[in-house]
Amino acid sequence: MDLTLSENQYNLVYNSLSFVIAAMGAALIFFLLVRSRVAPRHRMALTLSTLVVAIALYHYFRIFDSWSAAFSYVGGEYVQDGEPFNEGYRYVDWLLTVPLLLAELVVVLKLSKGKTRSLLIRLTIAAIAMILLGWPGEVADPDSTARTIWGVASTIPFLYILYVLFIELGRSLDRQSAGVRKLVDGLRYIILATWGVYPLAYIAPSVIDNEATAEVVRQVGYSVADVLAKPLFGILIFAIALAKSREDGYVMPGDTPQEDTQVPDDVSELT
Amino acid sequence: MDLTLSENQYNLVYNSLSFVIAAMGAALIFFLLVRSRVAPRHRMALTLSTLVVAIALYHYFRIFDSWSAAFSYVGGEYVQDGEPFNEGYRYVDWLLTVPLLLAELVVVLKLSKGKTRSLLIRLTIAAIAMILLGWPGEVADPDSTARTIWGVASTIPFLYILYVLFIELGRSLDRQSAGVRKLVDGLRYIILATWGVYPLAYIAPSVIDNEATAEVVRQVGYSVADVLAKPLFGILIFAIALAKSREDGYVMPGDTPQEDTQVPDDVSELT
Known about the structure:
The structure is a homodimer.
Chain A: E1 4-6, H1 7-33, H2 43-70, E2 71-74, E3 77-80, H3 88-109, H4 113-138, H5 145-172, H6 178-195, H7 197-207, H8 211-247
Antiparallel strand pairs in A: 1-3, 2-3
Helix pairs in contact in A: 1-2, 1-8, 2-3, 2-8, 3-4, 3-8, 4-5, 5-7, 6-8, 7-8
């Protein structure tokens, strides 16, 4: 490798990785604290969100340390002369968290047992295939045909996941309330938008000639995508679980079943 | 850089950073322990306070380590000869915590859903703009025009936040009880006073000629401001949530609904 980064380039990645650690840690505490606001029967989705950010928190500590150890500060620049930076942490993380993320969405909908089981099995297999097929391309030479071929191969299960979420799951949403349907709709577009960042980060080394710039774009891209796909996704799953809990008439232990709003929603009264 | 600090200067920053770690850690435990004193429906504000101090605790551990690693003890002085001190941690911290701090204040008031949503969106955007605009100035040369320009640009969203809190939010306080109104009033002045320390720390390198003194003032200033703006602010948010819980007639599970004071309120009887 022997990559040389400017102080700003190195720090942009360094601070992005640290930002993700803080975001995952905060999300972990958040999901644990708001747990009791959701009816017990809707808590499994929240449990999965908690696992996802905990697993990512662990991996980002490792990624951060691997990044710091790979570079030395020499004459105002950062030279990659230590042990190689381990990109593998990301793929191990995704191998665990991507099936869990898809399971969050399936579980929170409370579809029939048969439908849930069938979706979980197919989405898990597709997610694992997507990640395993991406890995050989990730470690291949940036300009090699191998990188392109593995990238394309990895895109096939990705498209299958999108097909399941947008076409097949769409048919199962009729029984959900209008409020929940709207939240699920938003969630699917977040998957589309944030999961779209991963392929862009993946192809960065192939389309950006400057090796240092490509590496910075890739690392920052993956980091931003992880924050959107895990804590933000989990917060929306929590919103769905909360909406469904309220529809079920669930009241938190110790709480009075009164409305949240003590004032009318009419904004004109407030201006 | 090659900053040289006297033992006292170095230690003042070092001990200030350690003080903040202790304060954030204590606040984290406090917010977790007093959680059940607040009615479930008022706990979201407390949850946000907990996240803020947890995120800051993480960052101050990093800031402390970065400070220690940046200097060597040579001949009775501290010479900055290691990796550069990473000022970025503070900005990453604020990027996460300032929107959460503003959300604490909005959420605890329990305004209408529409008003809450509108305030949260606008205050979050303004907070992020304020921090992102400050960053290029922070890393610019102390005497450069760039530092002044970015500083002024960052002040515009800051003034907008103050406008929302003092003018717009003021109109929404009519429906709050006198006790809560008084607490919110105090809170807004604390925001004004403590957030005012940040710009002072920011301009320190431009107005103080001695580089070492300027760095010490800046680091101690940011540290003191963070303790006031996070743990102290959170305690006041807790006081508001507690007052509102009592107004709602909330009694802690397992507690008897008797008064806290067992002695007569008439002080003359006690003297």
